[in-house]
Design goal:
SduA_C, DUF4263 domain-containing protein, 7 helices, single chain, 9 strands
């Protein structure tokens, strides 16, 4: 999708789709980005929009785009926006396999960050560079209705069951202590994403 689609978020539909996400995680241990993850979220716009709640400045999920072309150089798997607050959440999905986050190396007791994780993380860094480079241009304003937006990046990768407690702590530490150009990059597994969205939707419904 080259442009943002204007949507009206449905909490009830999102609840159904969140249940389907839970079933997907229970049914399949390993998930492919292209064969499982992207097709699943493309068919579930309300659940996809809820990922925007990971951005603390997004209150209304009214703009949505899949495989969003970022000024011709990069493609964002999923982008969610709050047009009123000019806040955006840019999401990169990677695979959910045993080597998606860490890989073991012969002779080393501590696993290394995997090429899959580093590739996904680096893509978000490149998005941030491009957004910063294009700010205050007419093209930027035409896309986002302003020359300054608040944005965060989200990397969703891997499964909890493949991680030892220490590696889960490493993943959490990296998320909480790393910033790129003063912008947040949230890194979480698909299991953590489901748990987080469940809490956020329940909070939304209780308001």
């Amino acid at each position: 999708m080259k442009k943002f689609e204007e949507i009206e978020f449905s909490p009830s539909q999102c609840a159904v789709q969140l249940g389907e996400f839970k079933k997907l995680l229970q049914k399949k241990k390993d998930l492919s980005e292209r064969d499982d993850i992207l097709p699943f979220f493309k068919r579930r716009k309300d659940l996809s929009a809820l990922l925007g709640s990971l951005h603390p400045k997004i209150y209304k999920y009214d703009r949505l785009a899949f495989e969003y072309n970022l000024f011709g150089d990069f493609v964002v798997d999923l982008a969610i926006g709050d047009s009123t607050r000019k806040s955006y959440c840019f999401v990169e999905f990677e695979s959910a396999k045993d080597n998606s986050i860490f890989v073991s190396k012969a002779g080393k007791t501590t696993p290394e960050w995997s090429p899959t994780f580093e590739r996904g993380y680096s893509q978000i860094v490149d998005w941030f560079w491009k957004l910063n480079d294009m700010e205050r241009t007419d093209e930027f304003e035409n896309r986002f209705n302003g020359r300054n937006i608040k944005y965060v990046g989200v990397l969703v990768v891997g499964r909890n069951e493949y991680l030892e407690p220490r590696e889960l702590k490493r993943l959490k530490w990296r998320q909480e202590n790393t910033r790129v150009n003063s912008k947040e990059i949230y890194c979480l597994t698909f299991d953590e994403l489901y748990e987080d969205l469940s809490v956020r939707l329940n909070t939304y419904l209780s308001i």
